[in-house]
Specification:
By secondary structure, the protein is α/β, with parallel strands linked by helices. The strands form two sheets. The protein has a five-stranded mixed sheet with strand order 5-4-3-6-7, with helices on one face. The chain is globular, with a radius of gyration of 18 Å. 36% of the residues lie in helices and 16% in strands. It is built from six helices and seven strands. The protein has two domains: 35 residues; 140 residues, Glutaredoxin (3-Layer(aba) Sandwich), CATH 3.40.30.10.
């Protein structure tokens, strides 16, 4: 990081602390969006561990209902894995799209939403308030997420029946329902 980049980073950081501490974004409406979309990856490509054409990494998660889902249990049918956190504005915009996909295609495509650093009570409250029904797995940390990527949520992976990733999306391009259906 150059000195000039550091100074800009420091000024932005102080400014954002002011905004969060005071809640005063009304004079800077364009920054409300900027604050919600900040990530700390220097290069978006560096944030990705797996992508299109890669096999799913070995993982296992327990869903809210106690069911265990793993890379092995997803074999044999198409699947969609969604990483999210309900405090993330982009996730809040994309989860209803994923829910629509799940309601239309959940009978033949396994859909699982995996939290990034969020526990069951918070997720359950959000799911109930927003009439979401797709299966989710609370996670206290980033251990599972880091098998797939290191930054940027929401992150959506569509996977074929052999466990190969056929489409991948993040907050730089949030897919529409049509895009999700076409990629399946």
């Amino acid at each position: 990081m150059t000195y000039g980049t550091f100074v800009i980073y420091l000024h932005l950081h102080i400014f954002f602390i002011f905004i969060f501490a005071t809640g005063k974004t009304s004079n800077y409406p364009e920054l409300a969006l900027l604050v919600s979309c900040i990530d700390d990856a220097v290069n978006p490509a560096e944030a990705v561990s797996v992508g299109v054409g890669d096999r799913l990494p070995a993982f296992a998660v327990t869903l809210g209902d106690g069911t265990v889902v793993s890379d092995q249990t997803l074999l044999g049918a198409p699947a969609m894995i969604v990483f999210f956190n309900t405090t993330c504005p982009d996730c809040r915009r994309e989860l209803p799209v994923v829910e629509q996909f799940y309601r239309r295609h959940g009978q033949h495509c396994r859909v699982v939403a995996i939290a990034r650093e969020q526990l069951r009570d918070d997720i359950a409250a959000y799911w109930a308030a927003n009439s979401l029904t797709l299966p989710y797995s609370p996670q206290p940390d980033r251990a599972v997420f880091n098998l797939f990527a290191t930054e940027r949520i929401p992150r959506i992976y569509q996977v074929n029946s052999q466990g190969i990733i056929t489409a991948a999306y993040d907050d730089t391009h949030l897919p529409t329902l049509d895009e999700l259906e076409q990629a399946q």
